[in-house]
Amino acid sequence: MSEHPVLNVAVLGAGLIGVDLLHKIHRSPYLDCGLVVGRSPSIGLARAAEMGLATTDGGAAALLDSGKTFDLVFDASNADSHAEYWRLLEPTGAVCIDLTPHNSSTPAVPTVNGAQALTDRHISLISCGGQAAVPVLHALARHRTPAFVEVVCTGASRSAGRATRLNLDEYIATTQDAVRAFTGTPEAKVMVNVTPALPPPPFRVHMTVLAPDVDPHVVRDLVEAAAAQVRRFAPGYRVTDFEATRESIGVTVEVSASGGRLPEHAGNLDIINAAAIHLADLRATSLLTEGTRA
């Protein structure tokens, strides 16, 4: 018998993000995947079945028709479908962690507001760029509120699935909103590059921050501390470049996929899925704490 709570979870979506998520769920001692749901038969659903997991197609309606109950549902589908999926899921009482850039729920970044976000049942992971940029930007904003922030995300085309390509406008808008919310900046600009370069480069995010009276030594320490926190659940996250003057800060981070299943360049998939699993694990351990106090 398990010594800690194990959450029964489902995954909506069997694309690049969904399939990697299944492998990460399998490695978590706190999560058990009871169902993988696609919109139609697919290679991803076939891979899930090969892993011994229950699968169904037909979207969130098929999840409800399965007769199973879930503590938590990961939505790894697409922004266009998420509103309808949440409408169907909300009455079930399940927590929903949204990996699409839909921007209709509480934005969460594990190292910034992970514990607080778990008090809500509808949680957004913003975007892979948001997960890479916000920890650093939030740390910098503790030193000086930025007057302007620019974020440029560059990822390999081989690690950008169909849903990601269809949702680029939502990705940009949702990431910009999160940057404003977590830094207090009045102006944020986000750009996304999907490159076919060979060999495929690692996922890279460059941040430019304009702020008054910057202390370069202080902000360097803040950036390194923020990166170290992210590496606790995403080991491939690292700062590759840092420059600061009294009026501006430039930081580049790269994310390499770790764990063996994903190619190294697919850090965009790795970081958002690692964040999702980390939040779900926090949810399970919080239930353990509540049970101990009861």
Describe this structure in words.
With 294 residues, the protein is α/β, with parallel strands linked by helices. The protein has ten helices and twelve strands. The protein has two domains: 143 residues, NAD(P)-binding Rossmann-like Domain (Rossmann fold, 3-Layer(aba) Sandwich), CATH 3.40.50; 137 residues, Dihydrodipicolinate Reductase, domain 2 (2-Layer Sandwich), CATH 3.30.360. Strand 2, helix 2 and strand 3 form a beta-alpha-beta unit. Helix 6 runs antiparallel to helix 9 and helix 6 crosses helix 10. The model has no long low-confidence stretch (mean pLDDT 93).
Please report the total strand number as a whole number.
Answer: 12
* CATH architecture verdict of the largest domain: 3-Layer(aba) Sandwich
Distance between the termini: 20 Å
What structural class do helix, strand and pairing data support?
alpha/beta
Q: Outline the biggest β-sheet.
A: 7 strands, parallel
Percent helix, as a range, is 40-55%
Q: Radius of gyration over alpha carbons?
A: 19 Å
CATH fold name of the largest domain:
Rossmann fold
Shape: globular
Q: Strand order across the biggest sheet?
A: 3-2-1-4-5-7-6
- Fraction in beta strands: 15-25%
